[in-house]
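Amino Acid Chain and Its Fold in Token Form
===========================================
What this section holds: a protein sequence and its matching fold, both as plain text.
Structure line: whole-number tokens from a learned vocabulary of local backbone shapes, matched to residues.
Purpose: to set a sequence beside its fold so the mapping can be learned.
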Amino acid sequence: MPTFSAPDGTQLGYRMIGDGDPVVCLPGGPADSVYLGDLGGLSSRRRLILLDLRGTGRSATPEDTASYRCDRLVDDVEALREHLGLPRMDLLAHSGGTNLATLYAARYPEKVSKLALVGPSTRAVGIAITGETRRELAQLRRDEPWFPEAFAALTAIAEGTGSDWEAISPFLYGRWDAAAQGHHAAGQPTNMEAVALFGAEGAFHPETTRASLAACAAPVLLLAGECDLNSPPQSAAEFAKLFPDATLVVQPGAGHYPWLDDADRFVATTAAFLD
């Protein structure tokens, strides 16, 4: 696995899969990028460069753990671009990693050729997602056998009387089958300190970021799963309005991992945008 040095000397690892023009991929979590797989076969169309964020996967743990904060990780992404020798780069991010990609685009808009945000988180731009929005969206799954238990857990979380996050996991997938359950089990973050500090105080300045995104000329794709409680289509639509050139695509029947729910549709949409 190739590595490069971050500005503070931390050694960071990344994987390369596939052929074609490169697209740098940022995972959510922060978790090992392995859960992204080959993004449903997108590697057949583009060369995926999958970064392990510091303290995850093959990347080293930093001496200064405050550097886990999302805004500070922007320097790591820029160091990867320089290491790869790319004047500009196509950038794809998933879930929490879309906050990092958003901050990168706000700070280095001239270095981004295209930006794809999959299952986008809206923390970096201050768009709130209410418990009511999540509960309404959850009703799309009311005929599933696991729905009663999962919905009860979701309601308790929304009302502040419960915290059984594991019970609501089925809502993150378009199909809660053996493949989804295996993916969920294997893809959990292991560095909980990195998770806790990712959004620490000072990580996000939404008004400043919004103003900077207004000057980002790169085409942007926001791809949301129709059933995704983590990143509801409504919030993705509001997010899209912050960019001068953004396209929102809602993938039917998909949850938070659309490349698993319908790989062909996901690859067709994403490759068409990147090409």
In short: The mean pLDDT is 96. The longest strand covers residues 11-17.
